[in-house]
Structure formats: structure tokens, C-alpha cells
Automatic annotation (TrEMBL):
Cited SMART domains: HTH_ARAC
GO molecular function ontology, one term from the record: DNA-binding transcription factor activity
The HTH araC/xylS-type domain, residue ranges: 236-334
Protein source organism: Chitinophaga pinensis (strain ATCC 43595 / DSM 2588 / LMG 13176 / NBRC 15968 / NCIMB 11800 / UQM 2034)
PANTHER family on file: REGULATORY PROTEIN PCHR (PTHR47893)
Annotated signal peptide: none
Name of the protein in question: Transcriptional regulator, AraC family
A Pfam family per the record: HTH_18
Length: 335
């Protein structure tokens, strides 16, 4: 099962139900997808929804034919939504029917939404991606050491917008979509493990999206490193080197020396370019590589451990469980 890719909407403009999808596009549409034709038929909305543990994942594709079109985003239940505007259009929105919000292209915002919401869309195609979750999911995250300084502030803000029946939580700290957000969205869209594994996988990716959003709020005023074309190229070489040597331990000081760059550029520059620290990237890529090896039928357990830098499969499974919340064997089952 797949979420729509960004360019797939053209193929679905004339469809009225998932059963109308041509077989050659069947892998691009998910169960629970639907086309909604509103009264004037000036707009067509494709809605997709997936359950992922503590999160619900939504993606909307909207085709507007009128000069200016209103839609009424209504959550299934009052909840928090991490919202990503995926296209190049600016959208005027009114949360709780009153609070005016400019949804800018490639921007990520956190909302509390109830029933009365309005979005005014210009003509054309629009794509919105968001994950929904309960307040407790956010508060559990904010209790972790790196984010604890935001706990009281966000707890008060959530209480305030609940009383107002909706609102933006992070205003005025808007967050831009970066390469890391885009990578996580791509991985959620393209996930094709078995049903149980897909649920754990998507839940982890949603958790990483929320953590990254909060981290961006914390670092919003952090000074930037000037990244020349040569520095970007070098950091890209570092990333590829790490991928090719994921079975080996990595020492950042030695790695900086090997590529003749400072540890400051390696750490801060890598995070600035990729939206994730190098240490976190190494661990994330190692876990991703494990999921790919587990999907290979007949791949011996000890080979998977050796290829990903673990002393044995038991150590691998312990790390895998800590990361994804399930045993590696869940991903070993065939799709």
C-alpha cells in the first residue's frame, strides 16, 4: 500500500472511487482513499488516511477549478496536527473560523484542530501532508531531556488553543520543510513492508518528524555555517562513505581528518545540510539497512548482524527493538 506520489494526482482527476483506479496505478492508491465531489463540483478532494500506532497519517490532494475555492478541513476527532504544505501555493486559512493563518509553501506548523476550519485555495492542484496525534504524545516527547525546556510553554499553549477550539501552537516560530522532513515523508509514502511491520515503521517515522519539528523550534536562532559548493560536496561524500561502511564503527575525529575538514563543519555543517546530526544519521541508516536486509528471503541472521556492524543477531535485535518498538522478526515476515 502506498500514499500518492506528488505527481500522481493527474492520473486520478476523473476517478470517482478507488475501484475506478486502473490496475497499472493500483500501487499508488491506498485503502481508505476517497474522492469527494462538493456541491458545485468546482473542487475535487482525494483524502488518504493511515493508522500508524499513536499517529494517524493524512495526505490530501485537492484540484480546484474555480478562481477561489473554500474547503472545510475537519479532523475526525479534536487533535494535534503537524501540517506540511507540499506545493508552491500560498493558502489563506482560518482556524476555528476566526484565527487567520497564512499557510506558506514548504512550511511545517503544529495545530490543534476541532471542527470549524476554513482554507481558501487558489485554482490549481494542492497537496497537504499531516500527521495527527493526541496531546499526550506531544507531552511525552517534551518530557525528554533535549526538549524539556519547552514543556511548560507548550502545555500552556495547547490549553489555550483548546479553549479557543483550535489554533496554531508554534506561532510565531514557523518551521521550513528541509531535506530531512522530505526524506521522512518519502519513506512514509513508499513503505511497503507487511502490515504489522509497516505500522511500526510509519509510527517511527512520524515520531521522528515530530521530534525534528521540536528540534527546529529549539535551534531556530542558531547561527548558520556558510556552506560553499565544495563544503556541500565534501559533506555529501561523507554521507556516502558512511553508507558504504555502515558495518564499521565511526569515529568523527578520524572521519574529519580523512576528509580534511574540521569537526565543527562535520557536525554542525552536516546537521545544517541534512536536518539531522551525523551520529543520528548513522544510527538511522543502520536501522534502515537492517529493514532492507530482513526483507531478503533466506538472508541468514548472522549475515545481517555482520553487514550492519553488530557482534551478533541478539545485539542487533535489542537495538532494533529500542528503535522501532518491535522485534526484527516482524520485518522478516514476507509482505
Amino acid at each position: 500500500m502506498y500514499l500518492f506520489s506528488a505527481d500522481s494526482i493527474e492520473f486520478f482527476r476523473e476517478l470517482h472511487s478507488p475501484s475506478d483506479v486502473p490496475k497499472r496505478f493500483a500501487s499508488k492508491i491506498m485503502h481508505h482513499s476517497s474522492k469527494v465531489l462538493h456541491g458545485d463540483q468546482q473542487k475535487t478532494i482525494f483524502l488518504q488516511r493511515i493508522i500508524a500506532g499513536f499517529f494517524e497519517i493524512f495526505e490530501h490532494h485537492v484540484v480546484c477549478n474555480a478562481q477561489e475555492t473554500e474547503i472545510l478541513p475537519t479532523p475526525l476527532t479534536p487533535s494535534l496536527h503537524l501540517h506540511v504544505s507540499m506545493d508552491d501555493n500560498e493558502v489563506d486559512a482560518y482556524v476555528n473560523g476566526q484565527q487567520s493563518v497564512d499557510l506558506k509553501p514548504r512550511e511545517v506548523n503544529l495545530f490543534y484542530l476541532e471542527e470549524i476550519n476554513i482554507a481558501v485555495l487558489p485554482p490549481g492542484k494542492h497537496c497537504f501532508f499531516h500527521i495527527a496525534f493526541k496531546n499526550d504524545t506531544l507531552f511525552r516527547l517534551l518530557k525528554k531531556k533535549p526538549f524539556a525546556g519547552l514543556y511548560n510553554k507548550y502545555q500552556k499553549k495547547v490549553k489555550q488553543v483548546e479553549e479557543e477550539m483550535g489554533g496554531m501552537i508554534n506561532e510565531p516560530g514557523q518551521v521550513s520543510m528541509d531535506a530531512y522532513f522530505m526524506m521522512l515523508i518519502h519513506e512514509i509514502r513508499q513503505c511497503n513492508f507487511n502490515e504489522a511491520a509497516s505500522r511500526y515503521y510509519r509510527e517511527k517515522k512520524c515520531q521522528l518528524m515530530l521530534e525534528h519539528f521540536i528540534r527546529q523550534i529549539l535551534y531556530i536562532r542558531e547561527p548558520k555555517i556558510e556552506l560553499t559548493d565544495q563544503k556541500i560536496l565534501t559533506l555529501d561524500y561523507v554521507k556516502e562513505y558512511v553508507k558504504l561502511n555502515i558495518n564499521k564503527p565511526v569515529n568523527l575525529k578520524q572521519l574529519a581528518g580523512q576528509f580534511n575538514i574540521s569537526t565543527n563543519l562535520l557536525e554542525k555543517g552536516f546537521r545544517q545540510l541534512n536536518g539531522i546530526s551525523l551520529r543520528s544519521f548513522i544510527h538511522m541508516y543502520r536501522m534502515e539497512f537492517i529493514t532492507k536486509l530482513l526483507a531478503i528471503k533466506g538472508m541468514p541472521h548472522d549475515s545481517i548482524a555482520r553487514l550492519t556492524g553488530f557482534r551478533n543477531y541478539a545485539a542487533l535485535n535489542a537495538a532494533f527493538y529500542k528503535y522501532f518498538g518491535c522485534n526484527a522478526e516482524v520485518f522478516h515476515e514476507q509482505c
